[in-house]
């Protein structure tokens, strides 16, 4: 068991060197995520020998990090502000006032660094203990990272393509066969990763708790390029929308569940491209409520294999590992690019220990099946 002890060296606020008061109203996309938990990532770096000496780290490295953060906040001052809901205003705002800043905690952990880098499932609270404030302990939950290589994805793609025309998907709402486009020439890493992982989770959960037999899934879409007119890539606010996949709740644990869910996710993405990001937008909340009443466990995603998190270099090289700690707050898988090759994806998951053990067996075994 890794040590969870933390020694707090410093707590401070880093502010922009100079920035005018700024008030930004919450827009439609911002309001959607207001009450959601934040995405919490942990970046693990190995410092060069010249920076790892404590006296050098605290006297030279830390001041440079603070200065760099301060200068960056000058260009993104709302990040140093606060969410306010002015009296009489219909919506909250983000307001930055001179003097506002970002809270920074400098702490030293006794945790074993190599143990933290290991992808094998481990006590989920170990990562949580690197974040402040400490959340409640996750009893009997473990956190693991699973990698799909380029070869794995090619194998999964071939499996779906070979059965595309012979396996039908059934929409959850109507119970009738869904009309899916003709066989595509390719399937995205996102479609293959989500479908395969969701189906492995569903079968593992059902294998441990037999009464868990109804599942659903959803994902978020970057709407910037899909708006009319398109929104520039450097847009500062939120521009992501949630979508539910129309698949029969029992499909996840059927014999051809992987093919069915892959086709369903692909169909949903094509529908978004053809009909727009807001097609059936008014139905999302009622559909979530209906699924909850039916006892359906809805699986979701965080992060993306396109974010390039392993390209974030502060002068120490790329991270040795990037982990989305907040996947433990919901039934969510965390996606990131593959650190060790240009193709592939890393999937982070938190589940109860018995479910994780079966999931690992299904996940790895399914990649070797032809």
Summarize this entry quickly.
With 370 residues, this protein is α+β, with helices and mostly antiparallel strands.
What does this structure look like?
27% of the residues are buried. The mean pLDDT is 91. Helix 6 (150-163) crosses helix 8 (257-275) and helix 7 (189-208) crosses helix 10. The chain is of the alpha+beta class. It folds into 2 domains: 6-121, Chloramphenicol acetyltransferase-like domain (Chloramphenicol Acetyltransferase), CATH 3.30.559; 143-368, Chloramphenicol Acetyltransferase, CATH 3.30.559. The strands form 4 sheets. Strands 7-8-14-13-11-9-10 form a 7-stranded mixed sheet, sandwiched between helices. Helix content is 32%, strand content 22%. It has 10 helices and 14 strands. Keywords: Acyltransferase, Transferase. GO terms for molecular function: acyltransferase activity, transferring groups other than amino-acyl groups. Pfam families: Transferase (PF02458). This is Phenolic glucoside malonyltransferase 1.
